[in-house]
Amino acid sequence: MSTTSLGWLKQVTAELFPPNDLYDFRVRETIDISKDDVREVTFSAKYVGRHSAGLVLHRFDDAALAGTAYKFPLRIELSFFRGTVPVLSTPSGETASWFIGRSGSGFDLFFFDVPRDLPVSETIAVRIDVLTPNAEFANAYGPVDFVIRKVSDK
User: Fold this and answer.
1) Which pTM value belongs to this model?
2) How many other CB atoms are found less than 10 A from the CB of residue 124?
3) Residue-wise pLDDT tens digits, 103-152
4) Dihedrals φ, ψ of 138, to 5°?
5) What is the DSSP letter of 17?
6) Structural domains in the chain, sorted by start
7) Rounded-to-integer distance, Cα 67 and Cα 81, Å
8) Which neighbouring-strand residues pair with 72?
9) Does the CA dihedral 88-113-97-17 come out positive or negative?
């Protein structure tokens, strides 16, 4: 069998039988969005492809959001570091997209690709800075967790 054939077979096998933890959260850290809060977490990307940094709401209400153009009431800055070197930085908010997942539902704030934007299997620090807190949103939807997860590449 040629190298090309083996590569194709490996790709088909990965598509048909993905790893059990492919879409698990790589980070899940509670943050306080009711006040100015700065938090730092670390993670390493385990799989190549598209990833999301976002928020999981403990009392997410998908019925209230279905079919609506939702204006996200927070501004959060995310900064990614490789050691002490900044790699990515983005203000997030206003136009977050919501998601429903098996381990929690909430909002995607920022998408990035591994290894184009961040490396695989290397520790990355993420600084989460709540720029415009919203106590009303926090009270309505409960505690909020910052998450990083692998998402579909399609």
Assistant:
1) 0.83
2) 21
3) 888 889 999 999 999 999 999 999 999 999 999 888 888 889 999 999 98
4) -60, -40
5) S
6) 19-150 (2.60.120.790)
7) 36
8) 94
9) negative
